[in-house]
């Protein structure tokens, strides 16, 4: 039996132009959905372990939190698939896993608080995990709304000064309010109303990042003007340092009037990094670092609350039952956790004051150990690196600075939080993004995530294709035609 004849050249005519059409670009949304499912499974299993350890029984809270978690991030995924289809597929799953871990730890501390209340014959407090899942839902609502409304993030550059003014006003309001409406644990950083409270500094940091991204792009010549050379480095001219001095004065004002060391350090550090990225001059970092050190020396000499923070950092056990109790318990918790941790639900993290907010990292270190804490820090590292990759990939200068600023503010915040609870630096009162209990922090960080997703979508989207005009007859490609066989009809 003879082999079939090979097909002739005319059997598979080449497309016009001689090239096959390019395959459709991959959005990788299915990978994102798979990772979100993985985060939901880890969260649900962790809730199961916590309840089995604490109550020796399983309640309907697992189903309630698990279903709510899945529904919330399912909506977020659908919104990304529709309004930011080319965004980085790792950003949302990482946030979902961090948020889920925070929910697990808050539920675990709720159970411990309930047991303590029963032991002391006190009323059982309402669980904060219910509030956390509600704030997560509201954060996703804000995330989705921003994805829909903000069609092009570059429009924010048109409102640079308006956004900056809004950020400054948000920072100033708590300082101007009476203490009963703004002060919590000695820091005036809240707006407290009956049945409602908000921390405006969380939103102010994002507004100020947008403001400085716009200013650095519009006034780039001011920051890159030739200055004096010293020790092989170029330093800015004194008359060009006005913007940095203004930021420094604002941060010192926050430190003095609101007693908020964390926010002032966060804002100044983020702005300093953005200036360095825009200019690539080490001189700005040296001058900024000098101003930062000068500000803290000034504050230490003049303000008692700063001296208390520093003295507690240096000698936490000298006043163990008063100012040193919190950081001392944090260190004991890390020591108890060791390498592998005590296991979810098997430690005593509720012995640390503010274990759900400022010291949630201590809870991780005690029950998940150094291994678990390292895994969490790796998740944050991946998130930050993907944000910086977005800054490198996006084409416009405003998007580069905005993505870099948003990524670095998370990096600085994590460094300040972990450094504070491990006694590397003085305590600042900042919360851990996406993990700590609190509505203002979650809402602001989901706004940050939405901005990063929009920039990532623009950076990864394929370039628009232009329809080519038909080629002239003389330039048209030659096609092979098969001659009709004998006896065939022509």
Automatic annotation (TrEMBL):
Cell location: Membrane
Principal location listed in the UniProt entry: membrane
Biased composition (Low complexity): 463-474
Keywords: Cell shape, Membrane, Transmembrane, Transmembrane helix
Domain of life, source organism: Bacteria
Matching InterPro entries: FtsW/RodA (IPR001182)
Transmembrane segments: 33-50, 62-79, 91-109, 129-150, 159-177, 203-219, 240-257, 284-303, 368-389, 401-422, 434-452
UniProt region (Disordered), positions on chain: 1-25, 463-490
Keyword Membrane: yes
Topology with respect to the bilayer: Multi-pass membrane protein
Protein name as annotated: FtsW/RodA/SpoVE family cell cycle protein
């Amino acid at each position: 039996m003879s082999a079939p004849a090979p097909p002739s050249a005319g059997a598979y005519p080449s497309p016009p132009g001689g090239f096959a059409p390019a395959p459709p670009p991959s959005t990788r949304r299915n990978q994102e959905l798979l990772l979100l499912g993985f985060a939901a499974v880890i969260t649900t299993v962790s809730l199961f372990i916590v309840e089995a350890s604490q109550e020796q029984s399983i309640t309907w809270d697992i189903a309630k939190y698990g279903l709510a978690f899945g529904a919330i991030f399912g909506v977020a995924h659908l919104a990304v698939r529709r309004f930011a289809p080319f965004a980085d597929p790792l950003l949302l799953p990482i946030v979902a896993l961090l948020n889920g871990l925070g929910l697990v730890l808050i539920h675990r501390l709720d159970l411990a608080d309930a047991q303590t209340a029963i032991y002391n014959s006190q009323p059982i407090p309402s669980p904060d995990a219910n509030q956390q899942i509600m704030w997560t839902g509201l954060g996703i609502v804000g995330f989705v709304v921003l994805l829909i409304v903000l069609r092009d993030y570059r429009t924010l550059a048109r409102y640079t000064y308006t956004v900056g003014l809004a950020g400054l006003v948000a920072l100033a309001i708590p300082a101007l309010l009476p203490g009963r409406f703004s002060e919590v644990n000695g820091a005036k950083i809240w707006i407290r109303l009956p049945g409602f409270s908000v921390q405006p500094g969380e939103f102010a940091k994002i507004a100020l990042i947008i403001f400085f991204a716009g200013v650095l792009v519009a006034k780039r010549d001011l920051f890159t003007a030739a200055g004096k050379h010293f020790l092989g480095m170029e330093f800015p001219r004194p008359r060009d340092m006005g913007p940095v001095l203004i930021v420094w004065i604002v941060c010192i004002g926050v430190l003095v009037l609101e007693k908020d060391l964390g926010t002032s350090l966060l804002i100044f550090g983020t702005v300093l990094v953005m200036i360095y990225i825009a200019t690539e001059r080490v001189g700005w970092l040296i001058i900024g670092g000098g101003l930062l050190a000068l500000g803290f020396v000034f504050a230490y000499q003049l303000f008692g609350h700063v001296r208390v923070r520093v003295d507690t950092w240096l000698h936490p056990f000298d006043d163990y039952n008063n100012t040193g109790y919190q950081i001392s318990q944090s260190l004991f918790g890390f020591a108890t956790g060791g390498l592998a941790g005590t296991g979810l639900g098997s430690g005593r993290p509720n012995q640390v004051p503010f274990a759900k907010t400022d010291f949630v990292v201590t809870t991780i270190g005690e029950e998940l150990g150094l291994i678990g804490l390292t895994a969490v820090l790796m998740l944050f590292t991946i998130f930050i690196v993907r944000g910086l990759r977005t800054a490198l990939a996006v084409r416009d200068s405003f998007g580069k600075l905005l993505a870099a600023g948003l990524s670095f503010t998370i990096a600085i915040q994590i460094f300040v939080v972990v450094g504070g609870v491990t006694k590397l630096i003085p305590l600042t009162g900042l919360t851990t993004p996406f993990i700590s209990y609190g509505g203002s922090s979650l809402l602001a960080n989901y706004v940050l995530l939405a901005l990063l997703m929009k920039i990532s979508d623009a950076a990864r989207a394929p370039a628009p294709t232009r329809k080519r005009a038909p080629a002239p007859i003389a330039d048209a490609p030659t096609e092979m035609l098969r001659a009709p066989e004998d006896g065939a009809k022509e």
